[in-house]
Amino acid sequence: MDSLLSIEQLSKSFTLHNLNKHISAVEDVSLHLKEGEFVGITGKSGSGKSTVLRCIYRTYLPQSGSIWYQSQRFGRIDLVTAPERTIIELRKFEIGYVSQFLNVMPRTTARELVRHAIVEMGHDVAYAEKETVNMLEHFELDRSLWDSYPGTFSGGEKLRLNIARAMVKRPRLLLLDEPTASLDHGSKLKVKVLIEQLMKEGTTMLGIFHDLAFMENLCTREYQIRDGRFHVAEKQSNLTTI
Q1: pTM of the prediction?
Q2: What would the pLDDT profile of 39-58 be if each residue is shown by its tens digit?
Q3: Gene3D superfamilies annotated for this entry (predicted)?
Q4: CATH class in words for 3-232
């Protein structure tokens, strides 16, 4: 089976002008994901895990390398050089991203955020409202918060809403950047149930986790990132190697 996503010799660095310092985040990284796989990435804070995901989502532009994605709408394209309009379309219809942080437009309620994510996929308002209710109930977000602004939410509530907004679109490729970082055990299980459901539906996932127990029996493969490079995880309990 051909790869849905192929990262080839990707390098990204940052310049701290105030300190006159140059930092290499990732160097010569290569990784291939087949359709339907769930690849997990572990590593110390600052090791470059999130940088890789942000390059895929095009929040960051790498210094060198390619990120080839097999799009339903555009065919095989390099996410590094694709036009901005194409990236926006892919984010809307094919590629989802869940981070630890919730960035939303001011004066937008939790219900509106999730509903809008569904409507922009082309669904009608009635269907969007039904799916919104199902998703908010799944994550047990208190009904009193549904029509409130997320700026007033706790960290865990914001994270649950962020996950709900991304997963409700059922993207072809889902990038997960510490999606369970500030969640309690019950909420983590809710995330796991949806991940397993999306996997059954064919979603391909690349996820960063510090909670190794959460990844067990979930990932197809696991990598550790050290010194800006990917290494096959040393402990592959219940995980397959390359």
Answers
A1: 0.86
A2: 998 888 777 888 999 999 99
A3: P-loop containing nucleotide triphosphate hydrolases (3.40.50.300)
A4: alpha beta
